[in-house]
Amino acid sequence: MNKQSNTRDLVWNGSLSISVTTESSPLCYMTNIPRLSYIAFILDEVRKILCPNEKLDNCWLEFEGVPLKSHWPIGVLYDLYTATDPDAPRSPVLWKLVLHYDNFPASQLIPCNEPTTFRTLFFNALKESDYVRNKSASYILSLSNSATEELWTSIQKHDFEVYQRFIPRLRSAKYDQLPVRIYITPDTPVVQESVSCKETLGSMLHKTLPKLFPSQNIAVLAKAIVHGISIPLSTNMNLLNQELCYTDGFVHIVIHML
Amino acid sequence: MLQSFNKQLQKLELQLKQCNYDCKIVTQNESNSLYISWQYSDFQTCVEKDEQCLDVVHNRAPIINIREWIVYSKTFLVPVLYFQVYCNGHFVSKLDELEQLLNCHDEHLHEAVGMGDHPIESGICWFIHPCQTKSFFDNWSLSINESRYLDTWLSYIQCKFAFLCVPFYESRLHATKQQSELQG
Question: Any transmembrane segments, and where (chain B) (predicted)?
Fold first, then answer.
């Protein structure tokens, strides 16, 4: 197995252990969920076990009082909200979440009660990332219905064997621009940028967030976390694209203060 | 490249303020966006008797507040209209509810409008998909540096989403009227 495919395997197989409880039930839902996956994929299952009489419309997950966005990759949510330092030694973690089924925070969370809602959101993100790379969403739009279904199912079921067929076009090395989303704190808006493949992570962050990254070479005030890993500022953006891109086509970067 | 666009946003802001709309330019990451907040007026009359048994007409329409942002998309290289709709203080997050409240039944609405992360604040909002806008401007060969770029974009959006463009329509009408009076 070559180094490149090994990294992709590690990223694909990266997972989090979570537990979900709710006030009205003595039960606890526990699972390992891929970092690349989404709360939207498990919410109904959680609801059926913990509060089957409640409507999915009203259900949402929370961590320490913060509503969790079901359309953000769960690995991003973990890195952002727990601020777990990947460079500090620690024991294996169980991420404890709480399920609510009332007072849905409508202005903070997108309701995922309809099966098509999250799928539409996901493909909008994929089209946008395709647009950044290709200057048009031609690849995604040109997928046949059956290919689109295959791609969607591979993401839902976390099936690498099927998903990897789409990787060459999704993450080709020939693109000039990459789509990046940067998460700074839980209550600041996401910074979305199109960045040059030729840049390093440090030069990109120095340009985009100069106050947090006054140096391109040394992480003085903050560091960049992708898939729970602290990434050196010297890393080439194209490498991030090839190895650490998420299934929606974006490189999602969480910023941790030092 | 965005200098001209920013100037056009400022001009629009001025026109909106002249019509007493609550609006401002918001700067974030060196990009300017225009924010406007307004109340959507609808009338659903009902007649009730007062203490003297006289007929009194009431408006029982829900109070609909709309917040909008014109933001330049660095991905699609066109302006995008983001918006939030509140009905009696409650955030409207379902498209069916939006259709009913704003009386905007259109079979293409579900394809044209999406929901996602707010580009300026930390919540979520609706937006009009920008992919078709790019083709529109390419067909027109209209550059962002041209002074009529933003007006043209507003006209394009207004054709399809008039219910969201009331302030822009009013302010432009007002500006046109002022200009005619000056010339007259």
Answer: none
The partner residue sitting opposite B119, judged by closest CB among A106, A137, A189, is A189
Rounded Cα–Cα distance for residues A24 and A102 (Å): 12
Residue B55 in any domain: the answer is no
**Are A218 and A244 contacting, i.e. CB atoms less than 8 angstroms apart?**
no
Minimum distance, in Å, between the CA of residue A213 and any CA atom of chain B? 14
DSSP states of B112-127: HEEEEE-SSSSSEEEE
- Inter-chain contact A124–B114, Cβ cutoff 8 Å? yes
**CA–CA dist A36, A41 (Å, integer):** 11
Percentage with pLDDT > 70 across chain B: 86
- What DSSP designation does B61 have? P
Question: Which residue's entry shows tokens 């003595």?
Answer: A26
Question: What CATH number did the domain enclosing B101 receive?
Answer: 3.30.1460
How many Cβ atoms are within 10 Å of A31's Cβ, its own excluded? 13
Q: Would residue B178 count as lying in a domain?
A: no
Distance from C-alpha of A194 to C-alpha of B40, rounded to nearest angstrom: 36
Among the partner residues B74, B115, B129, nearest to A194 by beta-carbon distance: B74
The percentage of residues in chain B with a pLDDT greater than 90, rounded to a whole number, is 37
| Assigned domain for B183 exists | no
User: Above 80 in pLDDT, residue A220?
Assistant: yes
pTM: 0.90
Question: Which sign does the torsion angle of CA A71, A76, A81, A82 carry?
Answer: positive
A128 contacts on B by Cβ (under 8 Å): 75-76
Contacts of B132 in chain A (CB under 8 A): none
C-alpha to C-alpha distance for B74 and B64, rounded to whole angstroms: 31
Does the CB of A84 have a partner CB in chain B at under 8 Å?
no
Integer Cα distance of B20 and B171 in angstroms: 9
Domain range for B13: 2-37+66-173
The answer to whether residue B159 is domain-embedded is yes
Question: Residue A172: helix, strand or coil by DSSP?
Answer: coil
Q: Which residues have CB under 8 Å from A174's CB, separation 6+?
A: none
Domains in chain A: ranges and CATH: 3-100 (3.10.20.620), 115-170 (1.10.246), 177-257 (3.10.20.90)
Instruction: Verify whether the Cβ–Cβ distance A192 to B114 is below 8 Å.
Output: no
Start-to-end CA distance of chain A, whole Å, equals: 36
